[in-house]
């Protein structure tokens, strides 16, 4: 907006290229001044940098179309070696011309965000030039140039300082990179050492586990040996008891053998005794039978005799 106001132009066309955008401005009063071919071209780079190119002046600003006095016109001709004409240059001007220098200074001030006396003066004055106007214009131009020069010097100093700081930071970064590289190497070595130590530790732990397992196995074997020893002692005791029992049983068997032999010797006598017992039993049975017969035979007479005696006693 400030560019259009400063140059009295409006946007004509825009074109987007690969590295930058181009914006073409034309005279904002082109409808009134149809022959005015004044243009301003701006290159807007994608990184925020602008480049501005403009033609010499508007068609209606030429001295032939103005009412500038002849004296002022001669001074302007001296400032502009090519003079003032209706033609419009198609290339960016190189000669030292008032309008071009003014626009360039104003653009520089705007680019660096600096106040411009030329811009203020141009906005407050008309296109009619007088000697006082030119002197004031020159003073404003000188002050703007000084301001821009000081700012450029400040920028150069800042740039040099920034370059020094950048170089210092690059050196620091380089040293830091070297330090980081050494630290990384130390870290890698430490990791490798830790890995080796871990492997040794794992191997030692495995060996200790094996030893513990072996000790535990030995302890179990010792317990089993102790248990088997106790069992062996018990078995020996049991064997001794069994042997004693066998000896005792052998003695008993010997005694039984002698008793058996004695019984074998007594068997014939026993058979004889059995025969005698059978004979006696038969005699007893026979005598019992005879006794029963006698009792039966004597029962009736005795009963009758008893009754008779009873009757006799009653009679008495």
UniProtKB/TrEMBL annotation:
Chain segments annotated as coiled-coil in the UniProt record: 198-245
Keywords assigned: Coiled coil
Keyword Coiled coil: yes
Name of this protein: Uncharacterized protein
Organism: Rotaria socialis
Lineage, broadest ranks: Eukaryota, Metazoa, Spiralia, Gnathifera, Rotifera
